[in-house]
Amino acid sequence: MTVSIAFLGDGLTVGGQWEHWFPEYDILNLAVAGNTTDDVLGALDAVVELRPDAIVIGVGTNDLGWRKSDEYVVRNLETIMHSLRKRLPETRILVQSLLPRGKDFAETIRSINRHIWQYAPTQYVRYLDLWPALSTPDGELGPDFTEDQLHLTDAGYEAWVAELRPGLEMLFELPPSTTSIPIQHA
C-alpha cells in the first residue's frame, strides 16, 4: 500500500510538483492559492476525513500580507497542529517554517518560526526549518529562488525539495505519536 501525504498550504504549496518529486507517495495537494492560516483551520474537517498517513503544513505568509501579527499566525499554527494531532493521533505531521520574503518581513517571520520550532515537539510534530536553505544573510528570499520576493522559481522549489526529502525520510523513521499536549489559553 502506498503511503499518502496531504500537503496543506497556500499558493507556494499549490505550485509544487509534489507528485513528480515524490512519486513513491500518494500525494494529496490540498493547498489553495491565497490560503491563510484561517483558511487551513477551516479546512481541517476535510483533511481529517481523508485520514492521510502524513500531513505537511506550509502556510502563514499570506497572513502577513493581510497584516496579521506574528502572535496571530503562531496561535493559528499551534491550533492547526494541536487539532490535527488530537483528531489524527496516528498521522505523522511535519510543519515547515515560513519561507523568507522581503527584508521588511524578516524579523516577523523569524519570530513565527522560532515559536513554531518550540511548539511543534509538544504536539509530536516534526519541524522542518527551510530558512537556512532559502534565505540570504539579511533575511530575504534568495534572489535565485524568486523574482518577486514571494513566489518561487524552479531553483526555489529545488532548494525546498532538497530540504523536504530528508525531512520526510526522518518523519517516517519514527513511529507516529498518539498523544498531544493541550494548548493553554490565558
From TrEMBL:
<dbReference type="InterPro" id="IPR036514">
    <property type="entry name" value="SGNH_hydro_sf"/>
</dbReference>
<dbReference type="InterPro" id="IPR051532">
    <property type="entry name" value="Ester_Hydrolysis_Enzymes"/>
</dbReference>
<protein>
    <recommendedName>
        <fullName>SGNH hydrolase-type esterase domain-containing protein</fullName>
    </recommendedName>
</protein>
<feature type="domain" description="SGNH hydrolase-type esterase">
    <location>
        <begin position="18"/>
        <end position="159"/>
    </location>
</feature>
<dbReference type="InterPro" id="IPR013830">
    <property type="entry name" value="SGNH_hydro"/>
</dbReference>
<dbReference type="GO" id="GO:0004622">
    <property type="term" value="F:phosphatidylcholine lysophospholipase activity"/>
</dbReference>
<dbReference type="Pfam" id="PF13472">
    <property type="entry name" value="Lipase_GDSL_2"/>
</dbReference>
